[in-house]
Write a structure and sequence with these properties.
By secondary structure, this protein is an all-alpha fold. It has 6 helices and no strands. It has a single domain, classed as Fic-like fold. Helix content is about 55%, strand content about 0%. Helix 2 packs across helix 3, helix 4 packs antiparallel against helix 5 and helix 5 packs antiparallel against helix 6. The longest helix is centred in the N-terminal third of the chain and has 20 residues.
Length: about 160
């Protein structure tokens, strides 16, 4: 049913059962519905002049829910299974809290250049692998939000 490129996390049957749109039958259809949902999330995010608590666990989870909530029942819910990458699922909330605390420290004390803070945040967030799926796309958007809303910079081009 679904095909995966190198580096993508395959969906397990339990995750697939969380599809809200039961007519999705191919990877291409899934990609199209997910991208439409992400576009809606980007519209919501760009309509915000200032984002309060951007570097918070609550906002990180809310962004994932906005990105995938029209497609997946589990959108915005922390992963509860093991994957081939990411921290042990029982440590996700602790690791996410540590990342948020570190990032707030980096920003407050100008520990790194702004772009490096955004990239370090993105790398750690995707390494934690908080959600069943969508972690790469989610972490890139979070890095862009840091650039734009924390530092007043342009978003990354992501090559």
């Amino acid at each position: 049913m679904f095909g995966y490129q190198a580096g993508q996390t395959p969906l397990d049957p339990e995750q697939i059962s969380g599809l809200k749109i039961k007519t999705i039958a191919t990877q291409q259809q899934l990609n199209e519905f997910e991208q439409a949902n992400i576009n809606e999330a980007l519209i919501w995010l760009t309509s915000k002049r200032k984002i309060k608590n951007l570097l918070s666990e609550e906002f990180i989870i809310q962004v994932h829910q906005r990105m995938f909530g029209l497609v997946w029942n589990w959108a915005g819910q922390l992963r509860r299974t093991e994957t081939n990458l990411g921290v042990d699922w029982t440590k996700i909330s602790v690791e996410l809290k540590q990342l948020v605390d570190d990032a707030n420290f980096w920003v407050t004390y100008k520990t790194y250049l702004p772009e490096e803070i955004a990239i370090r945040f993105k790398h750690r967030l995707v390494s934690i692998h908080c959600f069943p799926n969508g972690n790469g796309r989610h972490s890139r958007i979070m890095a862009d939000l840091i650039c734009i809303h924390v530092f007043g910079l342009k978003k990354f081009t992501w090559g």
